[in-house]
Design goal:
Blueprint (H helix, E strand, L loop, with lengths): L3 H18 L2 H72 L16 H11 L4 H69 L44 E4 L5 E3 L4 E8 L3 E8 L4 E7 L1 E2 L3 E3 L4 E4 L12 E8 L3 E3 L2 H7 L1
Antiparallel strand pairs: 1-9, 2-8, 3-4, 3-7, 4-5, 5-9, 6-8, 9-10
Helix pairs in contact: 2-4, 3-4
Length: about 350
């Protein structure tokens, strides 16, 4: 029986023979397949990170809306408590009119609940006065409950913000990795095309080609279905957030006329009045591209984070308005064409 050293040598020789046995074409095919799998894995990782960022935006805006409502509740309750307190003071003064007792001292405290308890100790109020103090106590308890709720919501909001920032850092790193994988794959495909004596485009983030009559507005981006998700001010999300590196090219999904806007929540934005009768809205651009009359696939801008996306992950907010006015969920469309 051969020794273990002999077995290892035999195995190494077998591996060497196997490698040598591969033809150059087979070796290139295996290398290309490996690059494709690595690019696909990097894309999945980027998609997962993009979904985290998008979900955290919805969670934060949902909590933010609840925070604003709670603040409004607190303000209303404080106003009611003040009004009831004023009534209690007036009635107590009436009850003790003519005495030397300084009734107003009872209500000087900022703690409304404590003030009502002191008033009860006086014991010389009418039934109506007692009802007023009961109302004051109820308002004081409710007010404290709302304040505790607000503190809890603010803690939750901060936790979401921290998670969002961490997810944005992961997304940035995932896109760096994805870009490197795509460049390696494109270089290999370009070399393969040259070896075959062919010219033409190849996979990756090259200029897009139409799918079902439309061009992907943000090739290579990662996105999820966030249509209808909560947004600030009680709004609902009307588009799809397509995450990509800053400066990634944005293309006209169809031919038409492009006009630009700058300011407000959208920041730098483009309106593509398509020749198909639909309006396509691009928001948060870093720079503008071609305007006026454009052909399908024309470069009309660059991916960014302007408007209310400032400071966050660069992305294209993309909307579709059928017939120019009816807002529809763009996710099924971009999922199909990108």
């Amino acid at each position: 029986m051969p020794s273990s050293r002999a077995l290892r040598a035999l195995l190494a020789a077998f591996v060497a023979i196997s490698v040598v046995a591969l033809s150059p074409a087979e070796a290139r095919a295996q290398s290309l397949e490996k690059l494709k799998k690595e690019e696909e894995a990097a894309k999945r990782a980027a998609d997962e990170a993009a979904a985290e960022v998008t979900d955290s935006i919805g969670e934060y805006n949902s909590i933010y809306h609840e925070i604003e409502r709670t603040k409004a509740n607190i303000a209303a309750k404080e106003e009611r408590a003040t009004q009831i307190g004023d009534v209690a003071v007036d009635r107590a003064i009436e009850a003790y009119k003519g005495s030397n007792f300084e009734v107003a001292d009872v209500f000087d405290s900022q703690d409304l609940l404590e003030a009502s308890r002191k008033a009860r100790l006086l014991g010389e109020v009418t039934k109506k006065d007692t009802e007023t103090i009961d109302r004051l106590e109820v308002e004081a308890v409710d007010l404290q409950t709302e304040r505790e709720k607000l503190a809890d919501l603010l803690d939750q909001a901060q936790a979401i913000i921290d998670a969002k920032r961490a997810a944005e850092k992961r997304l940035e790193q995932r896109f760096i990795e994805l870009t490197a994988k795509r460049k390696a794959l494109e270089a290999r495909l370009a070399a393969q095309a040259r070896n075959r004596g062919r010219r033409g485009s190849f996979a990756g983030v090259a200029a897009p080609t139409p799918v079902d009559g439309l061009v992907c507005p943000n090739p290579g981006s990662s996105f999820t279905d966030s249509f209808g998700a909560p947004r600030s001010g009680g709004r609902r999300h009307k588009g799809t957030d397509m995450m990509n590196v800053r400066g990634a090219p944005l293309y006209a999904v169809t031919s038409g006329t492009v006009t630009f806007g700058n300011g407000g929540l959208a920041g730098k934005s483009a309106y593509l009045h398509g020749s198909d009768g639909n309006l396509y809205f691009y928001a948060h651009l870093s720079e503008f591209g071609n305007g006026g009359s454009v052909s399908q696939g024309a470069l009309i801008g660059y991916n960014g984070a302007t408007g209310n996306a400032s400071g966050g992950a660069p992305h294209l907010h993309f909307e579709i308005k059928m017939g120019g006015s009816l807002t529809v969920n763009p996710y099924p469309t971009v999922r199909r064409i990108c």
